[in-house]
Amino acid sequence: MESTRSSKSMKQRLHSVLERSDGGFSGFDIFIVSLICLNVVALIVETVDEIHDVSPLAFRMFDTISVAIFTVEYVVRIWSCTAEEQYRHPVWGRLRFAVTPVLFIDLLAILPFYVALLAPVGLIDLRVLRFLRAVRLLARIARLSRYSSGLRTSAGVLNAKRAELITVIVFLAILLLMASSLMYYAETEAQPDKFANIPQAMWWSIITLTTVGYGDAVPVTAAGRILAGVIAILGIGLFALPAGILGSGFMEEMSKRRQGPRLCPHCQREIHE
Amino acid sequence: MESTRSSKSMKQRLHSVLERSDGGFSGFDIFIVSLICLNVVALIVETVDEIHDVSPLAFRMFDTISVAIFTVEYVVRIWSCTAEEQYRHPVWGRLRFAVTPVLFIDLLAILPFYVALLAPVGLIDLRVLRFLRAVRLLARIARLSRYSSGLRTSAGVLNAKRAELITVIVFLAILLLMASSLMYYAETEAQPDKFANIPQAMWWSIITLTTVGYGDAVPVTAAGRILAGVIAILGIGLFALPAGILGSGFMEEMSKRRQGPRLCPHCQREIHE
Amino acid sequence: MESTRSSKSMKQRLHSVLERSDGGFSGFDIFIVSLICLNVVALIVETVDEIHDVSPLAFRMFDTISVAIFTVEYVVRIWSCTAEEQYRHPVWGRLRFAVTPVLFIDLLAILPFYVALLAPVGLIDLRVLRFLRAVRLLARIARLSRYSSGLRTSAGVLNAKRAELITVIVFLAILLLMASSLMYYAETEAQPDKFANIPQAMWWSIITLTTVGYGDAVPVTAAGRILAGVIAILGIGLFALPAGILGSGFMEEMSKRRQGPRLCPHCQREIHE
Amino acid sequence: MESTRSSKSMKQRLHSVLERSDGGFSGFDIFIVSLICLNVVALIVETVDEIHDVSPLAFRMFDTISVAIFTVEYVVRIWSCTAEEQYRHPVWGRLRFAVTPVLFIDLLAILPFYVALLAPVGLIDLRVLRFLRAVRLLARIARLSRYSSGLRTSAGVLNAKRAELITVIVFLAILLLMASSLMYYAETEAQPDKFANIPQAMWWSIITLTTVGYGDAVPVTAAGRILAGVIAILGIGLFALPAGILGSGFMEEMSKRRQGPRLCPHCQREIHE
Question: What does the alpha-carbon distance between residue B50 and residue B56 come to, in Å, rounded to a whole number?
Fold first, then answer.
């Protein structure tokens, strides 16, 4: 009986360290964030052959140690989640906890290591290995976002501006399709390699309307240039809309978090602006 | 008599299904929107030779069936429009209804099919065929915009900001002409192929002032580069103006739709803007 | 005596037609604006050899007739300006009127024609002729701006935001100089042709910081790319500032012109926002 | 005793001329700012071989004279700083004053001259000389920023928007890493020279997400283009965020400086923000 209680309280203590809900950072959080940051840097730097070849073993060892720590962390998270009311059931609770997006990303950050380790050498080819590496890196970067308040703010913004964004995106999709179709019919004869079909013309449209303008696909006919000029002038303003909506939403959301209602510091009455 | 009444009520029922005025979506609307979307995807994907050549017949059949459905829809719309007061006259009412922009686009979405079908083979060449295909695709994309509230919002914005937009556009046109003329005289001697005349220099101006910057026409002389630097710094702010006007207008229009009417803070009565 | 009075009243009538001060457009204004527009189009289209060579005489004649009309207009403006109190003196008043910017541009729009006509053939070379043509075209485009309310608005904006603009421009000039110097020292060894000196590196800086990004000068060394990345991320926000200041000033100025103070339409009291 | 007092008062007079605290410009400030401006222009123009070679001696002499003046100014500043309460101590006070950022930049603007002069010829190679020149130019440009109110405003803005900027920058760093990793895995096989490793892909990401778009690294595979299109549309809005935050902060800071303090509309007392 005693042992069960102490085990339970240890589980609860572990759980409260791992899953803080007050928004602050514990010492453990700082350790994990630092480890993930080092991991991301290592995985990025590893792709530079000159650096990787200095000591491939060091990279390999650092990855192994990191995965070991992340695995322990993952297992303890799964084990201790039953401390929370909603995941109380020892089997179904843990399963439901394991399939939450956050835990799923935690799993993706370690799984590729074991797959690459356990798969029979003959069965795993270079493409699969590259895919596993991509998943591993992306999942570890994604793990960082759990600790970034920017992501939570963005989620709030996307929710608050949902209606506007959908309206604008449908509208922009129609514009994009029209611009691509027009440019395809205007340029395909003169440049059959760069405007071979409408999906290719769509590449031109996106790169032009976002004002990136690489210059890899550029209209050369008079009709194409007149069309492109009109599309550029008209379309750019409209493609800047979602950016504006997201940007102003972000600012609103952030100032909302910082302030309660605004009060006059002298008479304490609320000031409406 | 009975037959006339039942025919009339059927016409009215059809009409009210086809031309909903309450802004919602009927099941029929969803069917037509889905069909147009599939159509647009098919017409775009069809331009990719690798996909088209898998089964040209499938594309041909899907187009034929779609046109058949759109034709029935078009004919029923024209037939049932007399249910509305303003198009009551059996001939002139229907004609006036047929030339409204919305119905005209519906016609353009099906007409190219019949023109290509009925035209004597010897009389129709590749250029005409391409033109018919472009019209068909653009008209079908345009049909989608009827169901997008973004388009209605934009029409409202263009109307509300008319005066500002005209002032700014005249001003920008003057700037564009000046920039193009200056660059033509600065660069034509050094690059007679890229700045051969002022309309060509205008291509440079538009691509630079919108910050797309393909790099296909770039000043190379010292005078041209100094001019281009000054034009870029001065002009970009001004070219961003219509985007800003449209953007802020869009946001206003959208928040107006979401909020109720504006009230005077003194007497609490509604203020129309 | 009678003749003097009638001449004076004719002068005043002419003057009031030519120099309307109420901001509206007279029939004469519309005629002149149309003529200038046609002129600008002709001078632009003339630079396209294929069009010019169709009928060089027509372009020559249209220019001669236009200059004749503009000359008459100019002479009458100068002659009738004494009707205004501040230019009353028959000699000094007219001289002072002739050197106002607006009248000076009017003169520049016709003078090149006479210079090219009267100069001894041997004395005028191609470069001078091109310069005269550039002046002629720019002055005629500039004449249009007299009738554009956009220009007057801009003048108001520049005046209202003077302090902000000067602060920001000094700040940006310092940033531009620093970015150019850094990039010159980072890239001159690797690309001695594209970053040969700091003024050339300044071309890179302007094209990058305005986000035009032609791609004609691109850093290739690791140090240069890291610097360029940092400069791009930091600098672009700051280079967008003058655009933002001008843009918001433009909007304020325009809404100020449209509205008086805002009143509640029911109780007619002023509403402060 | 008398001599000490007069020396002290001379010191105080010198100090108050050199370190004005009321924000205005003394005649001495104008002289120094003009000299620095001339210096910066000379150092920039000097890098153009054609101009430098006209009279290398003139540039050398102008630099020597400038450094002499700056050295006198620097020495007097250090000597007279004890007039201020906080740097009263003749040794430690002067040392603490010498390590303030402003004085440190003043030193950097003259030190390279003496290092190049005093170093044994055999010991200083071209790379060190270039580094000294870069430091000299950057420090002199940086000296200008002391007199620019733009810099002080920016410091205020960075402080006021600290929290927003950190949140956004962490968020953008995560996005940048994800975009770079995805593009590396998508493109490295097709373009092993341009997407050789993730840091190289990061160059692509920065140039694309800031919409500069040089076109030196462009995705060519279908997967890479689809990814790039999605990244461009999603990411650009988010990369424009810091610019928007800084821009709006700049405008707020500037209007705050122009306007008086904010008053509560109920009790009319001042509100500090």
Answer: 10
Calpha distance A2→A118 (Å, rounded): 41
pLDDT, position D216 = 93
> Which of A200, A236, A245 is most worth mutating to test chain B (most B CB atoms within 10 A of its CB)?
A236
Subunit partners of chain C (3 or more CB pairs within 8 A) = A, B, D
Indicate if the pLDDT at residue B272 is higher than 60.
no
Task: Dig out the tokens for A147 from the structure.
Answer: 């600790």
Mean pLDDT of all residues in D152-165: 79
Contact C83, C12 (CB under 8 A): yes
Tokens linked to B263:
């009230």
Mutation site, A214, A256, A267, A268, interface D, largest D CB count within 10 A: A214
Length of chain A: 273
Q: Do D206 and C163 touch (CB under 8 A)?
A: no
User: Which amino acid belongs to residue D156?
Assistant: G
Q: What is the pLDDT of residues A133-149, one digit of tens each?
A: 899 999 999 888 777 77
Residue A169 makes CB contacts below 8 A (sequence gap 6+) with A242
Query: If you count DSSP H runs as helices and E runs as strands, how many of each does chain D have, helices first?
Result: 11, 2
Identify the DSSP state of B216. S
For residues B70 and B106, the answer to whether their CB atoms sit within 8 Å is yes
Q: What are phi and psi of C212, to 5 degrees?
A: -65, -55
Q: How distant is the Cα of D157 from the closest Cα of chain B, in angstroms?
A: 22
Question: What pLDDT was estimated at residue D273?
Answer: 46
Comparing A41-45, D27-31, D249-253, the range with the smallest average pLDDT is: D249-253
Predicted TM-score of the model (pTM): 0.86
Q: State the pLDDT confidence band at A165, using cuts at 50, 70 and 90.
A: confident
Give the residue-averaged pLDDT of D59-83. 92
Return all residues near D80 (Cβ < 8 A) that are at least 6 apart. D11, D12, D14, D15, D18
Closest C-alpha to C67, from C119, C121, C126, C108: C108
Is the CB of B215 inside 8 Å of chain D's CB atoms?
yes
Residue numbers of C between 87 and 126 with CB closer than 8 Å to B: none
Which of B268-272, C105-109, D231-235 reaches the highest mean pLDDT?
Answer: C105-109
Residue C205 pLDDT greater than 70, yes or no: yes
Spatial contact of C173 and D40, defined as CB atoms under 8 Å apart: no
Judged by a CB distance cut-off of 8 A, whether residue A214 touches chain C is yes
Contact check, Cβ <8 Å, D47/C213: no
Which positions in chain C touch A211 (Cβ < 8 Å)? 211
Decide if B269 touches C, using CB distance below 8 A: yes
